[in-house]
Task: structure prediction
Amino acid sequence: MKPIAIFRHSPSEGAGYLTEFLQQHSIPWQLFCIDAHEAVPSDASQFSGLAFMGGPMSVNDPLPWIEPELALIRDAVARDIPVLGHCLGGQLMSRALGGTVRKNAAKEIGWGEVTPAGNTESRAWFGDVKNAIVFHWHGETFSLPNGATHLLSSKHCTNQAYSLGKHLALQCHVEMTEAMIKEWCEIGAEEISGNLHSAGVQSATAIQSQIAQNLPPLQKLAEQLYTKWIEGLQR
Result:
């Protein structure tokens, strides 16, 4: 089986629980550290799927790797190779497929509730989940590309997820581990403190105090989404 290509855009925003899941299912994967200036592949057919992780930058920034990643996403979709995006990754997918990315009405940082759309596609991905607590860290939002189906929303962000056939784009972070959450709270302390006036932002203390309660169900949700996503892998 060809490996899944995983794209990391920041040292602190790795694949987290996604790699644990892939290892549990004996699915090979290859990490591309874009933050360490590794080249973006030009041919999606080398891989059974593509997964794009988060990052503090915007897809609208003039960074040299953005256009190659957009081209790779389009190549994968044309070849029916599943693409999975987390936060920045979901925004890359949207822009690659004709959507837009802009500033969200409110920044979201920390734990927050999301609600599935309740349509057939949403039920296929989220099952009988009525609402869930997920992890957020974003200030921008994506629009849905043509043909995409809206899957998920939150109080502060309408477009939290969409699917396009076997492709899944997420605005929220379902890939979190305890170590990642603690590291983000440390690295992002200034961003958190500067945005506590926003209803969508929690303090670092509040975020970390809820790890034990919220992380296990978040990883269970991630497992459900990833299990559905790997059904489309080219084996």
